[in-house]
Amino acid sequence: MLPAPVSTQDPATATGRPLRWGVVATGTIAARVVADLALLDDAILQAVSSRTEASARAFARRFGFAEVYSDAEDRPGYERLFDDPAVDVVYIATPHAQHHAVAMAALTAGKHVLCEKPLAMNARQAGELADLARDRGLFLMEAVWTRFLPSFCRAAEILRSGEIGSAQWLQADLGFVAPDDPASRIQDPAAGGGALLDLAVYPLTWALGVFGEPSDIVARGALTPEGIDRQNALTLTYASGACAQLLTSIGADSPGEATIAGTEGWLRSAGPLFNPRELVIQAKGGPARTERFEVPGNGFGYELREVTRCLQSGLTDSPYMPPAESVRMMELLDEARRQMGIRYASDAD
Ligand SMILES: NC(=O)c1ccc[n+]([C@@H]2O[C@H](COP(=O)([O-])OP(=O)(O)OC[C@H]3O[C@@H](n4cnc5c(N)ncnc54)[C@H](OP(=O)(O)O)[C@@H]3O)[C@@H](O)[C@H]2O)c1
């Protein structure tokens, strides 16, 4: 997978005709992403849907959406939003377990889709979404925002330049202590809880970006009594001889760093690997240097610019985060879950 080129442009700057956005769900990440969407010169906040009318209205007031939809007796609010001809593209920010059903409904209704990570609960579901988007000629992208951040793209550029020689291994971690609330989506098996589905996409993004396709994956994890992973360790090996060690946890705070060791030096991304603020590079035994990065807003503008750029130019895939890449990531996560003994209800469908 080719990493996106380093962007030097403010993502807020319009690149073409305005797009009319619909947003599904009014939770934590929806608010953070929509705050950045509101900064784009060519984004129109057309409609928001929520399970409850009060929440939809409060969110619409806060960000300035023109229309609100909520659950009715006969159908969910998101289906009513997808019927709205004024909406061009939808951003889906429900918990993981709803991504497949909501995105299938959006594509069936003819809407382009940006869906939160993970794209689905397993590779079969992700493949169904990719097939439907392709058959309908619609845009589909998993919201892996890290891939579009100038810091991540710059790390890829440094590696391509050969400054640290040829990359040999990668170590990446991401952990936080999740509230011990069995009802929260992160602890709930029915919501796809656990560290793997919530966090592993970020270290995996680094591993896929640096080394591409692994030849083997070994996964070990510590499970909760409910059968989700409290933490896990993935070891990826590559035909080239390279190795990657990825750790994610919902029971331990970690620095959230990625370190890449090469034949002529190393590169470390600091603070945190999903939105690196610093790259430290030490090449050929010389002094280490630090490159620092600041993002406008919450940093989601770059992925939103990519969706906008693609739709304005008639692309149905982002070349930097196509649906096939999401399916491949889900296949790796499926295999990791198989090895750790984690099953979700959606696996039986
Ligand atoms: N890209 C990132 O940096 C990032 C960060 C955090 C999370 N995420 C992803 O975003 C997704 C949501 O995470 P979050 O932290 O925002 O969760 P959250 O705070 O629990 O919000 C999820 C929202 O989805 C809706 N919802 C909840 N249960 C639902 C159900 N059973 N059916 C339909 N809708 C439901 C609710 O909105 P309404 O009440 O309005 O319906 C809820 O507020 C997850 O898949 C997560 O992996 C991404």
From TrEMBL:
Domain Gfo/Idh/MocA-like oxidoreductase N-terminal: 19-141
This protein's UniProt keywords: NAD, Oxidoreductase
Cross-referenced InterPro entries: Gfo/Idh/MocA-like_OxRdtase_N, Gfo/Idh/MocA_domain, GFO_IDH_MocA-like_dom, NAD(P)-bd_dom_sf
Entry annotated with the keyword Nuclease: no
NAD is among the record's keywords: yes
SUPFAM superfamilies listed in its UniProt record: Glyceraldehyde-3-phosphate dehydrogenase-like, C-terminal domain, NAD(P)-binding Rossmann-fold domains
Family named by the database record: Belongs to the Gfo/Idh/MocA family.
Gene3D superfamilies per record: Dihydrodipicolinate Reductase, domain 2 (3.30.360.10), NAD(P)-binding Rossmann-like Domain (3.40.50.720)
Name of the molecule in the record: Oxidoreductase
Every GFO/IDH/MocA-like oxidoreductase domain range: 154-268
